[in-house]
């Protein structure tokens, strides 16, 4: 899945590869307890300048990850993790956006744009997103981006010492199959 460095222009944003000069903006927008509240522990809080430098120095080139650029600055991120072996036609997506940009419909548009790109460019049949049940804003955003609730995984995640249920949302390649159960 390497080699996809496409820049995707959307309504009010650009999805583009991360660059070394994104470090200051990345750290500024990622260093927020609310931004990281439901993200993987790979996304640290506090998010330091060293964390930003380490992320940007890592293997982001050629991977299915993009900066979300608004007004010339990287203010969020979006990515997809392809499945392996018998799950190779599935990709899990993840995303985050700086709090200053919440509530504007930007993430819905970015997730929809990114998902459309993934399904057009790769052989994925299924995109998945796992959302903490305690994060209804993210669940609503996924529904507005064309994902459907497939199920609930009870007590499936722990974040900051709290055990939480997880909602599994999916978007399928085939519109006929992409409907709620």
From TrEMBL:
Q: Which PROSITE patterns does the record match to this protein?
A: GNAT
Pfam families per the record? Acetyltransf_3
Record keywords, A-Z: Transferase
Can you name one GO molecular function term for this protein? acyltransferase activity, transferring groups other than amino-acyl groups
**N-acetyltransferase domain sequence ranges:** 22-173
Check the record and name the PANTHER family matching this protein.
ACETYLTRANSFERASE-RELATED, N-ACETYLTRANSFERASE DOMAIN-CONTAINING PROTEIN
Q: What is this protein called?
A: Acetyltransferase
């Amino acid at each position: 899945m390497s080699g996809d460095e496409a820049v995707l222009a959307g309504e009010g944003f650009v999805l583009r590869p991360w660059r070394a000069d994104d470090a200051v903006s990345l750290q500024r927008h990622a260093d927020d307890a609310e931004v990281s509240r439901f993200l993987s522990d790979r996304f640290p809080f506090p998010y330091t300048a060293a964390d930003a430098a380490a992320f940007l120095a890592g293997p982001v080139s050629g991977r299915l990850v993009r900066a979300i650029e608004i007004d010339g600055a990287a203010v969020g991120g979006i990515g997809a993790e392809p499945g392996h072996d018998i799950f190779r036609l599935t990709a899990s997506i993840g995303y985050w956006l700086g709090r200053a940009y919440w509530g504007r419909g930007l993430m819905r548009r970015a997730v929809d744009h990114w998902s459309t790109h993934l399904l057009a460019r790769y052989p994925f049949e299924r995109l998945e997103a796992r959302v903490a049940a305690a994060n209804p804003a993210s669940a609503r955003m996924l529904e507005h981006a064309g994902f459907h609730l497939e199920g609930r995984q009870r007590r499936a995640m722990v974040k900051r010492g709290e055990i939480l249920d997880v909602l599994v949302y999916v978007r399928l390649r085939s519109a006929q199959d992409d409907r709620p159960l």
